[in-house]
Records
---
Amino acid sequence: MLNHYLLADEDYILARYVSILKKKKIQTVEDLLFDFPIKYEDYTIHSIHDAILDVPTILEGTIVSKVTVNYLKTNDKEAAFKLQEAFKKYLGEDRVEKDYQPMSASEDFSNIPNAFGIPYVFWGFGAYNKKEDILPNHNPAFAPDLHPTMETGTEAAIVAAMSYLEKNDIKKGF
């Protein structure tokens, strides 16, 4: 019965999605319901000691509203150092990771700046309640604590922009 309902005829499905699904031989509601993914994501939390290089892994740890500068891929070292110093100056050294190690997060981040041949710095921030489960950022239930994450993110974004524009006289409270 559901094989009579074409996805292309449904107003709530955008044409570009219909086109993508058609390439996967999914044209009816029934096709969509009975299409099973080839792989499943494993969201089991592991110890960092069990982590394997280049294998996606969910790790449990503690982050207390800190900003980190990631030297992943080909971060521009001068820009990264300059940004980390700006974070320390404005946010305070206690809110900036000291010996942050590269991680395999947003590994496609570098594609756009590399295509234009411009320097870039990947950095992150966040906070969560130690009592909550730590979920990956693409998980539908992912939701870091709103406060102080929102404030830290706003401050970090402004400090990063001002640092890039070489405006070094950033004042608390902007």
Note: The helical segments are 15-23, 29-33, 77-91, 111-116, 146-164.
---
Amino acid sequence: MKVILGKSLILRGYIPRRARCLVVGGVLGLVLPLAAATSASASTTVVVRPSSMGSWTAQTNDSTGTAVPFGTCANGAVSFVTGPATPPLGVGSAELTTGNGTSGGDCDAQLRNSAYAGVKLSNLNALSYYTYVKKNNGQQAPFITLYVNNSGNANGSADDLLFFEPPYQQPTTGNPTLPDQGPVAYNTWQSWNALGGGWWDNNGVLGFGGFMGVNPLSVYTAQYPNAVIVNDPIYGPGGGVTVGVGYGSAGDQFDSNVDAFTINSTTSDFEPNLPSPTKKDQCKDGGWKDYADANGTPFKNQGDCVSYVATGGSNPGNG
């Protein structure tokens, strides 16, 4: 099952300087995550579906950073799908795609979260996620971007953008003093401990990426102890925390999934919408919990589900 969201409502994004190729031993290297252990165990898991996005927004940006409707860039979309394989949580995940091998690889597909405006970088105690890479440019896996205001103005503009990229999480490709999170692998779920990993930023406080070009977030907070995440009104109105793919070369092709995205005490479980029942018996014995109406609204109880079926969908779910 695949559910693709409509179109982006965000007016403009920001293009990070990430057109870097990682060369290892003269060959374009593919570096990825390690099984990311969170620094603090999450106490809340929130199921995110197209019908109930909560604080998440899905969008695609063109090569200039302008948000565009899905499909404007070749294969540009954010989809909620079943699988692939066995996701870390639930039965599904969010799929991020852009590029067809000829065009669109310089665009971006991302999920943005607006719930963390005002959270100080120094107060992050867990930041991790899982990725499943199917196609990339030889190195990229879904990466995290944080929009930050260095003076602590939660309603201010972003002074800098901070990036966690899986290709820079090995001693030979990033910072040798940080944990080795291993190389990127295809067609398997991998976990990334972003909180304990290496970051770079647009202003170069942490570096500009690559070998010896990433540092832990503690280096940033030492210089800017009041730095907070912001939903920048121009560059990041959809949210100051993003996870996405793309911004490579036009001929690149990206297709990866993300799931179990954890920030502090909350983990987001990305799932497709629930199916709709077609028979009253599907609502019995607790079965109503596994269904929703055509708009993705869950049912409140068995009677609510039965009413939906009996009226041919005229009575929507009330869950």
Note: Confidence is low (pLDDT under 50) at residues 1-42.
---
Amino acid sequence: MERPHLLHMITPDANVSPFDVNMAYDAGFDAVIPYTHVAVKDVRGLVQDMIFSRSVNDVKRTALFICGRDASLALDMLDKARDAMVPPFEISCFPDPAGSFTTAAAMVACVEKALRDKKKRELKGCTVAVFGATGVVGGNVPLALGSALAARLLGGDRVAVVFFGDGAVQSGIFAESVNLATLWRLPVILVCENNGFAEFTPRSAHTTVERVSDVVAPYGLDRETVDGNDVLAVREAFARFLASARAGGGRRGVLAGSVDGPRGGGPVPRRPPGGRVQLPLRRSRDPADSHAAGERPA
């Protein structure tokens, strides 16, 4: 009789993700066994119970999935799991806390395809760095600061660029990040894609500052507001900012820009307070279509 394919799922959290359980069964595993509240020190014993309870041939039908939400902790668990292996008693181990590793792998695959199709290049021999974000609004801004700090320490003319919506500008983490970036004079460009709404909330309902770029005025940054529906204007402004950042320009080496106006490719709230969004108007001003037609906003 053929032995079943078993997937052991360990997590430091109170429960494993039902999403991951469903995916495991849909992938063809015969049984999925969850273990919760697992500490790093527990991993070795659990893994050796997994491998020594099956024959050399059957252990190949055993796998370990490391869940949770902490990527660093998941990697520590992976190291302990690998150390617990005793060849030929070995099993496949796959960490993917909150889907972060599979998401990163998918991004790398997309970049690889784009390079191959559009640039006739391969990733072979390249160094790939994946900077993850968070589900928290504005959470990607401090991550960009880390990238900019690394660029500064390594030398050269690399510049970090971070994109965010106008809702993120109202978060405390945005103000903290701008303050730190100016103090350390980091090579970073802040680009706000302002469509006038923080999801369903119009800008007028959560701030009295009309122009997003004015939010960073107290820090003395070079800043500019650009019509987001004018592809060439955005390109020209960004080129100026990039050249200045690479040259160490700006009062403290940090530059901020706001790409304003409704854009067809951006998020469009469906039921904002105070009325409905004029979808036909937004779609008629799609910047990609206007640029393709050789048109520029008046």
Note: The two ends are 75 Å apart (CA to CA).
